């Protein structure tokens, strides 16, 4: 029997693995444990600090529900979700970005040119673009699931005053890959910070803000489905997104358009009398086997 020491415990952990263990499971678990052991040695972790870490995880477990997963949020604010995403990004395709917890199933159908703003306050934003493959060819009839905050900074699932489907829509792009809709311009908002993640953010002197964005999930047969977001280039939190979701190709100019210039062909045509903004955001998909 070997005596376990602080220097050989990592090696002994590896030796406990069965020969029959799945090779990838073995690789992942061994590397993770090696990094955790090295981290403890590097910072000389105290009992109190270790206990505090476990308490935060326990708290995350207590408040996690199907609607609010504190572990996913923890992964988001530590940059883990974004790093996993970026490890698997395909050069030439639109970057992917965090999904977040506010997507709803069965969103209502939104026709091309349809409107998500309805009677909500807020500035009109016209969003247009084309779904393309990596050679620039349009992909007909791609499915685009879109969601965002209301102008009060809340998603429908956070706000008793909204119906669950407000600011959610499912669009099928036309035969030329074009999609378009009107909405209320989304606003910057804070991730939930009343749990352990909020405590970690405060301890680090970090804020809980995200720059304003629209979320997309884009799917088309034969292509990798894309979870992404689009951000305006003038948002004050663009360079300090608390969940690290901003990528250069997802930052777009929201062009200010004067009153009286709203184009025909949209559900809101004729009813937009004031100035509005317009953003053009093409979505480039990678082939499934890429
Ligand atoms: C969101 O953008 O909806 C979001 C993403 C990560 C954590 C919390 C919210
Ligand atoms: Fe969001």
Helix % is: 10-25%
Estimate the mean pLDDT confidence.
Answer: 96
Ligand set: benzoic acid, fe (iii) ion
Overall shape? globular
So, the CATH homologous superfamily of the largest domain?
Aromatic compound dioxygenase
Structurally, the number of domains stands at 2
Query: What is the level 1 CATH name of the largest domain?
Result: Mainly Beta
User: What structural class should be given to the helix and strand makeup?
Assistant: alpha/beta
Number of helices: 6
One letter per element, helices H and strands E, the order comes to: HHHHHEEEEEEHEEEEEEE
Strand residues, percent: 15-25%
Describe the structure.
By secondary structure, the chain is an alpha/beta fold. The chain folds into 2 domains: 9-45; 74-285, Aromatic compound dioxygenase (Protocatechuate 3,4-Dioxygenase, subunit A, Sandwich). The protein is 24% helix and 20% strand. The protein contains 6 helices and 13 strands. Strands 1, 2, 5, 11, 12 and 13 form a 6-stranded mixed sheet that branches. Strands 4-3-8-9-10 form a 5-stranded mixed sheet, with no helix packed on it. The chain has a two-stranded antiparallel ribbon with strand order 6-7. A hairpin with a 6-residue loop joins strand 8 and strand 9. Helix 1 packs antiparallel against helix 2 (23-43). The chain is globular and about 80 Å long. The model has no long low-confidence stretch (mean pLDDT 96). The structure holds benzoic acid and fe (iii) ion (FE). Fe (iii) ion is lined by residues 100, 102, 213, 215. Benzoic acid is lined by residues 73, 76, 98, 100-102, 191, 210, 243.
